[in-house]
Amino acid sequence: MRRSLRVVCRDSLAATPTAAVAKKRPVKDVKVEVKEEATAVTKPRSSSSKRIKKEPIPSPEKEGTTPEPPALASKKASKKELEKAAQLDTYLSFIHTRREQTGDSNKLVGAHVSGASGLENAVFNAAKIGARAFAFFTRSQRTWTCKPLTPDTIAAFHAAMKRFGYAPGDVVPHGSYLLNCGSPDAGVLQKSRDGLLDEVRRCEALGLSLYNFHPGATKNEISVDECLDLIAESIEQTLQQTTGVTILVENMSNQGSTIGGPFTHLRGIIDRVSEEHRHRVGVCLDTCHAFAAGWDLRDDA
C-alpha cells in the first residue's frame, strides 16, 4: 500500500509543466521500484520461515495436576456475599437511626420502592433510604398472569421484615395498573377480579395487612353508578375469600372515565360493600391525584 501511494504522487508531479523534462526518469524509477517489489513478493520463502503449528495447551486434568480448590473457585461469590452483608448492615444502622430521630410519630414517611429480583429487596431498598413505611408491587404491574410466590420468597420477605423492624401496617402494596374492577367488558372484569384476589392473597402470604388499588373506569360505556356497583362487587368477592387484609380504594385524578376523582365515588363504593366486610375497606389518599382532580389540600378550607 505504501508503494502505491508513492506512484500516485510521482505521476501527479510528471503531469505538471515544470516537470515535463524529467517526466520519463521518474516513471523509470517507478518501474524499477514496482519490479523490485514484485520480486520481493514472489521470492520463495526459506525453510526457516515456515509456520510452526502450535499445539494446544493441555488442561490441568490431562496433565494430572490438582484441580482448583472449591474455596478458591467460590472466592468471587463469597466476596459479593460479604459486600452485600456489609451493605445490609449499613441499611440496618441507618433505619435504626431514622426511627430514633422520628420517635413515636404516627407520620411514617416512605416511598414506593422496587422489589425486583426478590420481594425481600423491597424491604432492603426501603431501609436504604431510611423509609419508615413503603409501597411496592407484589407482582408485575403490567401483565395479567404471574408466577405464584415460592416458599423461599415468602420466607425471605418475612425474615427481611423482622430484621429491619417493619410492622405489617408499615407496608402498603400497590395493585396492578391493569386492573379495572368496574369494567363494562366481561372479559376484562373477570381478569381484574382474578388479579385482585391473587394480589390480596399474596399480601396474606407475606404477612401484610393493607392493599391499595385503583378502583376502575366506566370507559364511557356504563354509568358511574353501574361502575360503582361492579367495583363494590369485586371487593366483596375478594373479601369473602380472604382474611386479615384491608383493601384501600385510592382516589384518582378525575381524568378520562376513571372512578375516584370525587370523594363521593369512594363513599359510594364503601357503602355498597356488605356490613359484614365493610370494616376491611378503607381509603388511600393520593395527594397528587387530589390536586389534579381539583382538591387543594394546603389549608383547612
UniProtKB/TrEMBL annotation:
Residues 125-296 form the Xylose isomerase-like TIM barrel domain. It comes from the Eukaryota. NCBIfam families: nfo. Its cofactor is Zn(2+). One of its GO terms (cellular component) is nucleus. The keyword DNA repair applies. Residues 27-38, 54-65 have a biased composition (Basic and acidic residues). Residues 18-79 are annotated as: Disordered. This is Xylose isomerase-like TIM barrel domain-containing protein. One of its GO terms (molecular function) is zinc ion binding. InterPro entries: AP_endonuc_2, AP_endonuc_F2_Zn_BS, Xyl_isomerase-like_sf, Xyl_isomerase-like_TIM-brl.
